[in-house]
Amino acid sequence: MTHTKLIELNGSIVLSNFKLDETELIVAKKIIGNFAEKIRNFQEYKEIKLEMKMHSKQGAKNYEMHAFVEFDGWKATSESRGINPFVLINEVMEKVLNETKHKNIEK
Questions:
Q1: How far are the Cα atoms of 6, 51, 94 from residue 3, in angstroms, in the given order?
Q2: Read out DSSP for 20-49?
Q3: Exposed / middle / buried, residue 5 (Cβ in 10 Å: 0-12, 13-18, 19+)
Q4: Fewer Cβ in 10 A, N or C end of the chain?
């Protein structure tokens, strides 16, 4: 398993504490990249940061995921908890995408 403190993707996407093996990390990057493109279709962002925390209890892994997307003048944030890191990435990125859509409809 790869233990990463900080990974930068394309200079504007940062993954913090992603404790995934190489194959899992490739899948995570693809999911995040797809959402980053969708978000950019609504509004240009300065940075996307995802933070992962892993908690182990009696051998069971539980994850906590936080997403922060910084735009010019505002931020979208989201968090989720569960046992599947890919589902959590999808959930937090979907929430910030929806917030971005909503914010741009208001303009």
A1: 9, 13, 25
A2: E-HHHHHHHHHHHHHHHHHHHHH---SEEE
A3: exposed
A4: C
Q: Report the C-alpha gap between 91 and 79 in whole angstroms.
A: 8
DSSP type of residue 5: S
Residue with tokens 């890919």: 86
Q: Over the stretch 39-50, which tens digit does the pLDDT of each residue have?
A: 999 999 999 999
- Domain residue limits at 59: 2-106
Chain segment 2-32, per-residue pLDDT in tens? 555 767 777 799 999 998 899 999 999 999 9
CATH number of the domain that residue 101 is part of: 3.30.160.100
Token readout for 39 is 């978000």
Q: How many domains does the chain have?
A: 1
Residue in the block written with tokens 């978000």: 39
